[in-house]
Amino acid sequence: MTLATAVFLACLLGVSGLGFAAARWRRPASLDHLEEWGLGGRNFGAWITWFLIGGDFYTAYTVIAVPALVYATGAFGFFALPYATILYPIAYAVMPALWRQAAEFGAVTAADLARIRHGHAGLELAVAITGILATMPYIALQLVGMQAAIRALGIAGDWPLIAAFLILAIYTYSAGLRAPALIAIVKDVMIWLAVALALSLVPLRLGGYAHVFAAAAAGLKPGGLLLKPGQMLPYATLALGSALAAFFYPHTLTAVLAARSDETIRRNAIALPFYSAILGLIALLGYVAHAAALHPANANLVVPLLFTRYFSGGIAGFALAAIAIGALVPAAVMSIGAANLYTRNIHARLRPGLTPAAQARIARRASLVVKLGALMAIILLPTRYAIDLQLLGGVAILQTLPALVLGLLPHATPSGRVLLAGWAVGLATGIGLAWATALSPVIPIAGTGLYIGLVALAANAIVVASGRVALA
After folding, report:
1. Domain boundaries 3-408, CATH class
2. Nearest CA to 82 among 210, 227, 224, 196?
């Protein structure tokens, strides 16, 4: 066993032990209640919430995919920076109100909120199914990030991924949301250290940042260091659409609803832009890979290859472990969010009268099924299929936005029937356009393009507005 592999395994086992210990951290009298297992008792303060939401957004796949996109396309890959900047004012304006509504009525999921505000069972089911389907490929993508880190160590086969899945499944089952909340702190610190080392040491060995940008400019064909005119509209709409969708994913909303108060959410919306600066630094690794003359068969390997080529054994193992652990936190929260949706808004509707303990037990089992499905997708299918499905995830989640945001209006809220019709038209439009463009997130229009999610949301909004006027 190499030193890098030994350090990698030691870090992974240490953090996994922390996950198991989380079952006793702030433990209530019983975890046999969905608010305790799935929301941590709605008792996370500002710091824990900050790390947990940050852990949801800045994941293993973020560390892998953002530099990979910058490596492949240049400036266009930086759309993640304005997206991260736009979404926090949205969170400041909307999320505290959603938290208050959820706390008042005991809502655990977005679909709960849709049912409470609009009283429509069909809309509740639509929001629940949309959230689950959008989350599954996202979990798979976390495993893609972990898989890239494992393969960079030269470990062959799927057994390390299966072992990591088992660890994730067991501590999530036992501790619920408390496990990823506690691990998120360690995960973020490890990623910050790994990125700081990569951006300070590797460019020095390559001749400095002047050489890095010169090499990137020469190697980025057909991309470049600056956006081309035809890229500006797709860049802007991808940033805006991604920002509108981000906080409505089940895992992000789970972290929000687990906060102690609406004031906790406001403080986090103010402090979370710090992560955007970290994201910009992570993206620069795509340019560093050009200066290092890396030519991987898959762009997702550029960051692991940088770590293994320029770091010594122990440091390389630590940096790759940071990526792997960066997969565990969001994958755990995502599986919990999807399990909450299934339990509260599908299973409980089919079997009314379930006790709180029964709901918690069903959610635990559902979280295992969700993670197993993601694992099978990675092992049995080519990775590109998971990525293609994730592109549709944002399009789908955007169609739940009217039901949740308009439900905050005190008067003249559209009916559940109208919102369900808007959801159906928006989802059909998004899927149809994605199919027509071979699952590209951008539809080409007159030499430029638009993010499909926004086009679908516009169709949704037109139906909702028209239906509200017709029924007025």
Report:
1. mainly alpha
2. 227
